[in-house]
Amino acid sequence: MLFCFKANAQELNCIVRVQAPQLQLVDPAIFKTLEADMYEFMNTRDWTEGDEFDDEEKIDCNINIAIVEEISQTRFKAEITIQASRPVYNSTYESVTFFHKDNDFEFEYAQFQPLNFNVNAYNGELTSVLAFYAFMVLGYDYDTFSKNGGDQWFNQARQIVQNATDSGRKGWKAFDGTRNRYWMIENQLDPKFSAMRTAFFDYHRKGLDKMHEDPELGRAQILLALQKVEKVSKANPNSMAITVFSNTKSDEIYDIFNYFRVPSSEKTKVGTMMVRVDPANAQRFLALGRATSRPGGRTTPGSIGRDTSPRGGSNNMSNPKGKIR
């Protein structure tokens, strides 16, 4: 069973889906109500408490929850996948800014129960996890428009982690593993990873957002950003920050430099760096310099700026989404 809701947002334009197996205990109607409650929770809350977003400025995101086990009629184990994106200036292309799959998600939900949330207290696993990722999405988005622009929202995410420490649920503590919410936010705010955040800003504002006027210059800035990422990766191998970056950006990086007009020397350089950053896709990036890419096909960052227009009509080059960043 698959349910889907989409709604307008305060800051988020979030599509929420719940996938459920052949249920033994639970009426499927409960999951329809759950989706409606979650989409309202994500889309109507004023997460920033003051920043104004026009319709075209709202952050596009997707949340997919796959129920993997019914523990009881009101308690479930699930996997939650979150993806967010932002527009590239003077383009119809949307760049993914955050992608993560979280398997440590066990929550309670009874039909028609209110989804209460307070950033200063733990109000249950469902709203804590949703709010944590709402603030992570905001933080990553703001970081693409100004250097360290996401600090406030990352600190809110850290507060949620601290509130949940004594909940007894997985994902909130350092010793729960190395790929959890605790390490995600700790890496993001650790000075050891500050170059990663600078690189993330450079990648988007100095790289992608400039490719409409000078693709070569844009790619050069992306190369410089990737060099910073590679340096952080060498100092902090297998860290959560590098994992999130790789999961979020590897496909896009490959598409940018696999474009047929990119010199083979650039392809080889990027391939060598990404083998270190994203060893899981080593074979793909090793082949990048040897691959013969062809023009045409789907729109990729390599062809940004060619006969495209900015989303929402914004012409403010200091900020492709408008006034708020």
Task: Please explain how this structure is put together.
41% of the residues lie in helices and 16% in strands. Helix 2 packs antiparallel against helix 3, helix 6 packs parallel to helix 8 and helix 7 runs antiparallel to helix 8. The C terminus is likely disordered. It has 325 residues and is an alpha+beta fold. It starts with a strand and ends in a 39-residue tail after the last helix. It contains nine helices and five strands, in the order E-E-H-E-E-E-H-H-H-H-H-H-H-H. Strands 1-2-3-4-5 form a five-stranded mixed sheet.
Work out the helix count.
9
**Average pLDDT reading:** 88
Helix coverage percent? 40-55%
Topology, number of strands: 5
Q: Kindly report the spatial arrangement of strands forming the biggest sheet.
A: 1-2-3-4-5
What is the quaternary state of this protein?
Answer: single chain
In terms of DSSP E residues, the strand content is: 15-25%
Quick one: biggest sheet?
5 strands, mixed
Net shape: globular
Topology as H/E string? EEHEEEHHHHHHHH
Structural class determined from secondary elements: alpha+beta
Radius of gyration: 20 Å
Q: Which regions contain 5 or more consecutive residues with pLDDT less than 50?
A: 5-9, 305-325
Please summarize what this structure is.
The protein contains nine helices and five strands; from the N terminus they run E-E-H-E-E-E-H-H-H-H-H-H-H-H. It has helices at 29-44, 125-145, 151-164, 181-189, 194-207, 215-235, 240-257, 264-277, 282-286, and strands at 2-6, 12-19, 59-70, 75-87, 94-108.
